[in-house]
Every structure is written in structure tokens, then in C-alpha cells.
Amino acid sequence: MGELKLMKGNEALAEAAIRAGVDGYFGYPITPQSEVIEYLMAEKPYERTGMVVLQAESEVASINMLYGGGGTGKKVMTSSSSPGISLMQEGLSYLAGAEIPCVVANVVRGGPGLGDIQPAQSDYFQSVKGGGHGDYRLIVLAPSSVQEMSDFVPLAFDLAFKYRTPALIISDGLIGQMMEKVELFDQMPRLTDEEVIKRHPWATNGKPVRGERRILTSLDLDPHRLESHNWHLQAKYKTIEENEVRFEMLHCEDAEYIIVAYGSSARIAQKSIQLAREKGIKVGLLRPITLWPFPKKPIDELTKRGIKGFLSVEMSAGQMIEDVKLVVEGRTKVEHFGRYGGVIHSPEQVLEALEQKIIGG
Amino acid sequence: MSEITLQDIIKPENLVYKKTSLMTNKALSYCPGCGHGTTHRLIMEVIEELGKENETIGVAPVGCSVLAYEFMNVDMQEAAHGRAPALATAIKRLWPGKVVFTYQGDGDLAAIGTAETIHACNRGEKIVMVFINNGIYGMTGGQMAPTTLPGMKTATSPYGRDVATMGNPLKMTELVATLPGTYYVTRQSVQNPAAVRKAKKAIKKAFQNQLDDKPGVSFIEVVSNCNSGWKMEPVQSNIWMEENMFPFYQIGDIKVDGKLIDR
């Protein structure tokens, strides 16, 4: 059993970065995730593992530091919250285009604009539909506990390097700020420079003595070559969709109704399901862990099984519901419920929505 | 006396100049007469002479030199517009033993990338930054740059730059020289052999500073012509540059070994 600690989600993410053998963290403070860089600065990871921690001048600089550092084959990471993540969209598009692995964490807060500093899930579209310009996807992991804030860091790096693409960990102000028991994984060694060079022949860390120099770019002025590059990216995304879908099902075996919810909303929905079952309503939970690739198959199978209705519960005006509807294709009822702008729905409100919109609707 | 043929001249003992292997054989995309190609060559010659071709990572900008990575035969990353110093910061921090440089134009370094430039310089990143200043946006068709001279006509200042409404030209090099994080700051040019020799010396000094782990950025501005953007013939544009750009952008060292030069 690993070391047990009581930690904030943001702190668990930061500690996991050190333990996952991250080479560099480049960040900029923003509420509600400033604890990530504060924790890292206080922990002196450069003494523990040799990890570089740098406070950049902006989120724009942070994400471009990930481009530079990630482009050399090192494990690089940043974190921010919604407005800061918006500033990073240009960089994420370039990272996806140039196929540079990195991990970005978004501790989402209410929007649009400066919004507030309370928890929200209104960055779903931005995360799973691209966010920046061009046809690209990010691998999006949604932790629903402090434990997963820790566990998803090495997982995100594994996926980012496996597919040479940026991975996003999307939580919210609730998961980032709350304290929970977390079992920390053991320290993983940072790769040596020689290992990085050997393992990532595409990386720009000095032209090999024998062999060609490397170029990392997202530019190709020849439209036919750029189209080919896009085909390559799309084929990669298809492989990810086929192999990397992660989700969790709770009480779905006998369920007549399904709540689809991720992150904080999935935790709240668990209580709603308990309340519903006490009333004799057979409802289950489908929790997408990867928001992209989206768990289409289990939703399709539940639909085929004759589920009477899906309630997509998100702290947004209804974003993930579009992906649920794309799978259900009108075969059964799909409704949305959620409070947003930083307001968190209660388990009772979710149950009431289920009864009114799905069962009674 | 028989006529001397080309074959008589092309002999190893007559070789006085050889293209550096660190310039690829790809035809330069720059307009004939432009200073970019010469500056590329000088940087690559310096890296070759220092024996660092396998230890160097360059960062290309957005602008005329967006394809610099096609000509510079070292590992290269192509940055988003203005962000090269952020890329270079992380590369150098994660690989302190490597040689890292950025190559940027005036729009890239002095407009959209001002924050990244100032903060990389202020943090004292141990990198080389090469800044090509031709007072215009060449790539997009000759629009006004932050460095466009007062009264200078461009596509977006067709009646001349009116400083009252369009702002003043930015002397980025003097500005970064005031920051404690810059170690060597100089302004050079490449319009004639004498200038090319001086510019190369400056570039070599900048890279040597990095090899010697000197504290801070070595920053080289190269004032260059843009004959196409200025709508002049190459020779005419160089004369115009000497007569108009040099009085405003004074050539020479501004800061050496971390100390400002009394000019």
C-alpha cells in the first residue's frame, strides 16, 4: 500500500507530478488551482528529483514552454483554470499539430469571461471539441476524486507519449479544493537525458551524429501535404477512440434510467441514485472517465437494452448532453440537468430533475 | 597564352570559401537582396565553428523566416507567432548543456511576442536571441511593424507612420539592455562585407557566452533591409537603410559582459 495522505486535489496533482517523474512544470497562478504551483515551489522538486518548476509570465508563455520542453522529449506539464486554459488554446492547437506530448490540467471555474472562482463544468466543449483552431482532439481525463487527481497524472503522461499528443486532465474547483484521503503511488524515476534521446527519436534535443536533424512544426504550406498530415492525425485519433475509452458504471445492471455524469457531478449523482433507489426508482450511473474519447459503446448498448431515458447531469447549460444524444440518435429520451455559473446542484435537485424530465416527462 | 578555364580555377588550393554544412541545399525563400539569408549563414557558420551542431536546438518564428528550419541544418522547433523565447526558455532549462537560440523578426519579437521577449530577457535565460529588424511586416505584404520609422510608408501606414496616432517605433534592443537578465546586447547589420564580418563576430560572441554559461541572454539585433516591402531595388534599399534606419537604430554594442556601454 502506498503512502496515505490527506490532501487537496490540487496538491495531490502536484505531488503526483513529482512522483510521476515529470521533468518540468511551467505554470501561472489562477484561482482555484494556484495550490499546484505553490505546492511545487514549496516542495523543491528540483532537490527531490531534479524537476524544473518555473512560474511563467502568462498562460500563453506556459503552454509554449510545454511546446519547447515537450518537443525535446521531456515530460512537461502545466495547470490552470478556465480563463487561463482559454489563453492556452492557441498553444494546444500547435502542440496537437506538431504532435508534441504534454499534460495540461484544467481546474474549471464558472464562466463565461472572468466568471467566478466556484466549481463548474462549462469547459466541456472547449476540451473535447478542439478548443483551438484546426481539426484536432485532446485526450481528456476527468477525475472525480482527489485519488484520481493523483492517479491520472501518470496515466495522462502514458497516453500523451503513446500517441504523441497533448492530454488534458479536467477537474473543477470542487475537486481541486476539497481534501480527501489519497494513496500516493511510489516515486517513479525521471528518465536520464540518454534515455530520453533513445526513447524519443522524433524529439529535438540536438541533431544525431549519425542521422537526420529533427524538425517540429505544425506548418506545411502545401495543402496536399497538410491534408495528408491531417489524415495521419485523424487515423491516430481513431486509434485512440478504439483503444482508450475509459468509463465506470454503477448500478446499471437492473437500471431503467441512466444518469450520465463525470467528475463532481458523478459524485453528486451517486447520492441521487441512492435516494432514487430508496424510492424504488431503478437508476444507474454511467461515468465517463475519458470525456474524449467519449464512451459511446456503453451508451449505445444501454440504449439497445431498452433504457427508458438518460439524464445528462453537468454543471453547465448542457454540453456533454450533445455527445449522449449523438449516440442515442433519438431512440430514447435524453435530457439535461445542471446548475452552473459556479452553483453546484444538490443530489435532491438531480433526483427531482430525473423524476420530472425523464420519468414524468 | 592559352585561355584560363573554369576548371583551372576550381582546385582545392584555390578554395577560399565553402558553404557551411549547416545550411541545407534548399533554395532560400527570401527575396534576392534580403539580409535574412546572410544572417542564417552566419549563425550556422558560428555553430559549426564552435563544433556544436549536434548540441544545438533552434527556434524559428512566424514571419518571413517562418521556414528558417528548412535552411538551418540543426534540430529546430517552429514556434507560434511571438512565442519563441518561451519555447527556448523551457528547452534550455530542461537541457542546460545544450545550445539554444531563437531567430525572430520585428513583428514576432517586438509586437506579438513582447511579453515573452521581455520576460525571457528579464529572467536571464541563458539563450541567444537573434532579432531581425527590417521595420516592416515582410511576409504578410509590407504592413507597419512596431519598428517602422516615423513617416515611413507601409501597407497599413500608406501616408507614412503618424506617431501621434500610430505610436512610436520601439527600440526593443535598448529596452532589453536595461534589464538585468541580459548579458550581451548588440545591434549589427549585414549590408556589406565589413558589416557581415562584424555581425559574425557578434554572433560568435553571443554563442560563446552561452557555452561559457554566462548569466543571461545574449541578444543580437540585425538591422536589415526589406527591398520588396520597401519597394526598392536591393542596393537602393541598403543605401536607404544606412541613411534612414542607422541614425535611429544605431549600430554597435549596447551592453557587453553585463555592463551598459557609454554610447
Q: For the CA atoms, what is the radius of gyration of chain B?
A: 19 Å
At the fourth level of CATH, the homologous superfamily of the largest domain in chain A is Thiamin diphosphate (ThDP)-binding fold, Pyr/PP domains
Number of strands of chain B: 10
Number of domains of chain A: 2
Oligomeric status: heterodimer
- Strand residue content of chain A: 15-25%
In order across it, which strands form the biggest sheet of chain A? Answer: 3-2-4-5-7-6-13
Shape of chain B: globular
CATH class of the largest domain in chain A, named Alpha Beta
Number of helices of chain B: 10
> Pairing-aware structural class of the strands and helices of chain A?
alpha/beta
What structural class should be given to the helix and strand makeup of chain B? alpha/beta
Arithmetic mean of pLDDT of chain B: 96
Helical proportion of chain A? 40-55%
CATH fold-level topology of the largest domain in chain A: Rossmann fold
Query: What is the rounded Rg of chain A?
Result: 21 Å
Could you describe the largest sheet of chain B, including whether it forms a barrel? 8 strands, mixed
Name the CATH class of chain B.
Answer: Alpha Beta
The end-to-end distance of chain B, rounded to whole angstroms, is 57 Å
Number of helical segments with 4 or more residues of chain A: 15
Describe the structure.
- The complex is a heterodimer of chains A (361) and B (263).
- Chain A has 15 helices and 15 strands.
- With 361 residues, chain A is of the alpha/beta class.
- Chain A has 2 domains: 3-195, Thiamin diphosphate (ThDP)-binding fold, Pyr/PP domains (Rossmann fold, 3-Layer(aba) Sandwich), CATH 3.40.50; 248-359, Rossmann fold (3-Layer(aba) Sandwich).
- In chain A, the strands form 3 sheets. Chain A has a 7-stranded mixed sheet with strand order 3-2-4-5-7-6-13, with helices on both faces. A 5-stranded mixed sheet of chain A has the order 10-12-11-14-15, sandwiched between helices.
- Chain B has a single domain, classed as Rossmann fold.
- In chain B, 36% of the residues lie in helices and 18% in strands.
- Chain B has 10 helices and 10 strands.
- The longest helix of chain B is centred in the C-terminal third of the chain and has 19 residues, at 193-211.
- The radius of gyration of chain B is 19 Å and the shape is globular.
- Strand 9 of chain A pairs parallel with strand 2 of chain B.
